[in-house]
């Protein structure tokens, strides 16, 4: 590939990546805010039908950009991807929540922050009313939301940005994809008001941590998919009285997995070599 052709390819991939970000965020927010305004956002039935359809549209569009590469790379370093995803997710999530609370505290003051925490907010957009609905949402999280959102934001958005820079400048690009992931959840501001700022920081942190693991393992989506699905599923279990104890137990297990993964990351210094395919410099070996 000559220099001129390579530059044109890089620019094309970069433009496609940014276009995909805009398309995803606009479409997702348009759907979510429309459902909220129509009073349908809390319907589990609509969510179970609409979510897979929305993800199918996004995956179909994204597949034309980078689908083949995702299928080739998603199981790369799969075993290491699991513990890196738990560990980096924990670091980024905790850090982002702390930063979000501190910034919000500076904006509204200690007294204002205390009143925000005590305020009774509207229910979440998806609120299960029965055990069957709760279990359906858990299944949706594990089988649809986790795989789809990781494929879209980490595999397609982040992967295309990394390809355009030959997998350099990964931290800056990770911030971009994590922010795009957070902006796809803007409806939290509608529900939580100023406290939605903390929720947005949490989601951006989540996206950054999973993107971190994705990069370190050369494009593996196994860890990010499992962690994302597990996190969402355990959160839904906390919203229904019957499954509340199980949700609490799973959150404890989640925390223990984060701690054990961080210990493993500290004790084990692994190098990951990308394949020699286009966009993966063979000499590029990031450290975990």
TrEMBL record:
Domain CAAX prenyl protease 2/Lysostaphin resistance protein A-like: 134-233
UniProt keyword list: Membrane, Transmembrane, Transmembrane helix
GO term, biological process aspect, one: CAAX-box protein maturation
GO molecular function: endopeptidase activity
Family matches, as InterPro entries: Rce1/LyrA-like_dom (IPR003675)
Annotated transmembrane regions: 12-36, 42-65, 86-110, 130-152, 196-214, 246-267
Name of the featured protein: CAAX prenyl protease 2/Lysostaphin resistance protein A-like domain-containing protein
